[in-house]
Amino acid sequence: MNARQDHIALYTFLVFLFSFSLFCYGFFPLSFSPATKTSLEELPQRLGNASLRGIDYKPRISRAVLVVIDALRMDFISQEENFKLLNSLLSDGRACLYRLQVHPPTVTMPRIKAMTSGAIPSFLDVILNLGSAEMKLDSFLYQMKQRQQKIVFYGDNTWTNMFPDMFHRRGENVDSLYVNDFYEGDRNITKHLNMELQMYDWKLMILHYLGLDHIGHVEGPFSDKVPGKLQEMDNVVKKIYQAMDKWKQKYYTKPMLIITGDHGMRDSGGHGGSTHPETVVPLIIVSDQCAKSDDTFLQIDLAPTLSILMGVAIPHASIGSTIYPALKGLHRKDMLYAHYYNTQRLKAKVESVLKNKFQTSELFEGYEDAKASHELFMNDTTDVSAYKRALLLYTSVTNKFTQFLISSYIRYDIVYILIGVVMTFMCATIAVMQILSDANANAIELWPRLFPSINFLLVAFLMLKLLSFEKDPSTYTNSFQALLVLLPIVCFTLWVIMSHLFEGIKMQVFDYFKKTPLHFQFVGLGICFHCISLASSSFVEEEHQTWYYLTTSIMVLLTLKQMRIMNSTIGMINHSKADVSLIQVCKEERNIFASSSVAFMCIHVFIRRLNQTGDKWQHLPDVGDWLSKDEHKASQSLAMAAGLCYLVYQICYMGGLLTTVLSFTASLLIYYYRAAMGTVSIFGLHASNSPICLTIFWINLVEIFFIGFLPMLYRAVVGSSNLNRSGGLYSNCVIIVALLSALLHKPHNVMLVGSLLATSRFLNERIDHIAENKNGSLVLKMITHYWLGKTFYYYQGNSNSLATIDLNAGYIGLNHFDIFRVGIFLTLHTFSGPILCFLMLMQNIFFNNNDETHKHKLKIDPLTIKWKVLSLINVLTAVPVCFFMVVATILRDHIFVWTVFSPKIIYDYFNVWLVLIQIVLVLLLLPNRISINL
Fold first, then answer.
1. Could you tell me which of 286, 380, 339 has the C-alpha nearest to residue 92?
2. What is the largest CA-CA distance in the chain?
3. CA torsion sign, 70 to 75 to 77 to 81?
4. How confident is the model at residue 475 (pLDDT cuts 50, 70, 90)?
5. Residue pair 229/215 in contact by the 8 Å Cβ criterion
6. pLDDT tens track for 50-96
């Protein structure tokens, strides 16, 4: 059976994507906790020989208001000029401030789940945050409803999506993800607050304010709008506090106000990562029934604490300890009983994990000591020392239980992980073998040998069955059994392909590396270095440094290579005693080339300074921060205008006169839109905030598309096959994506788009001059453009932290949340560098290599081009991902697994789907006849 190389490459990538999906399924379990509900019947009744029946487990407060201020950082509370009343309450002892540690991912939905249930959410909840499906876990909200305690809610509709039937009254922001809403949604919450403060039928009121978070996403935590928003929140606290004071005086009740943040905000704005400003949030309890403490508590401790204060059962999924200073109002017996109740729950969970080992562990000894001291106090309630000792022991042992359960609740499905790693390794190996195989072999013969094939299938099936013994027998569904049968067949086909490719390359591998030029050796070493660097968490956090080094080095290397060729040419001309003027012209060209190359490198040095990225130095100010300040709006305007002009100049190389005019008009509209948004100025003129400018912009893009599409459609109808003119469509597609990227980028980042197009031209020209053969030119262009895309991905401020995703780019031209358009805009903005580089590469392969002005050409079978491009894409994608999967599997118990490795896996998985789109474009858009310059 003959198999085409491009079909093998496509099949390999599809299997790779499937294998990566299996790995992610095993690495990111969807839930750590069961949906079991608890009840008050489970309250402990005895403690050793002492009876606990006389203790009344009842509500300790009359009603409570929980105010969640989205993205409230710890340092915001210390701004006394903005939180005047709150700081006054804290200084007078009428309120207590605690520090809460938040587990990543620091996004809203998982944090609400942690606060209400006391469970550690799955890391994949960061993706489910947009959908916010109904939460099945037990929560203190559910327990309050079971006790007929009414809850009202106003704010982020994430709550109403997670708890659709939980609230007696509610008023949600239906467009909570619309980040340009700084004030309107919060004003609606406050309006309902004024109404609810006059009502007396609720036990708990939850308010979730979003304005601060939206300001952080758009302008960052140091925006001039932040102080006003904090003062607004202080006024909200004032309203609630005054109402509570009236309740206490009139009805002699014990209300409580609880203020916290679901997560923090990083210094550059946004959240989702694991930096200190994102993971440490304040908890303020306004009540005379709390005590001050400098300890750091966990966010999951909030659920058992509120459950005790409300007199309801602690949620079954909760693994948190109690925030003991907040329970100061409890009597001694009640305080110890509450701690014993929670400790006993946690002890049962720990025992289910350790089983027989628990009885001999230090945890058990600490638990028994706490119980003994508690029993001693119950026998003599005047023994203060026994009370203090029991309280201290309970606090210590519950903290240890919680930490143990946090570490043990990180569950991996090792079966799927190992299957994914093995199959991904096979796919990566096939991709590398295809690159090393004969360049002219468009097809290979696949004839599996009978007995080795049967043995391989048998061994593969037995290995899978052996691995399946690790799984719970209840998971042996029909789909799982079908997977056990399907996977050996897939692995068998990969093994057959590997064996036949190996026979084709084993005789020429040594010669291949021996004859490789220096720049190709550097490329190979660069790929290896990048893979090896992924074994270090610091290199993953600072991955941009790897790409900056590799891209800059290959640009310098290609420049020096061409300089050497130019010097050799001048030497040959000089040796033949040619005309002196000809030698002078060649020297002038060399000097101009050297000067322009140095200037080009300087441009890259500057644009690298536009945005800090990574983790270690991300908090430091950069050029973009300086330009974004209001006092530097003139400089920001000049930078954006220069970036748009440079972009239009680069478009002139790809489009005709009409396309260039339309592109220039589109650039003016982009600038006008930003001026209407107030980020740039039109030097004294006023831009009205009208959507008409973006409407005209979209019309321009449609016109640019049809300028390239209609002629190609006409030639297809009449049967013409003029490839040169067909290339206009691909050039126009690049122009459209470049203009869209300029619209979505921050004003100071617009210059990155034109710089990327110029750098792509720079690399293509260098490679065309130094490449020794057609295959070398293609391979070098593919790899350098892949590196270039990664470099510009980090130039714009992206990193391997989820917090660097600029949500504001998803709402350009929108006044509401639309998951489809927002998703497309965010994808195009975040991955604009890799997308544009790929399109520029395809445009260069198609258009430049069919230019009739080139005299020396060699016709090549288009299948060779396709499978070479596909196999290179496979290598550049599969090899580093495969290596990183192995690293993540080995280091799955590493301290940074959820803060560094897991976000990187999510980014890689999303990028693989984008690569699949690129592969489809290669299959559909590459022409039937193509040539490569010699």
1. 286
2. 113
3. negative
4. low
5. yes
6. 777 667 888 899 999 999 999 999 999 999 999 999 999 999 989 99
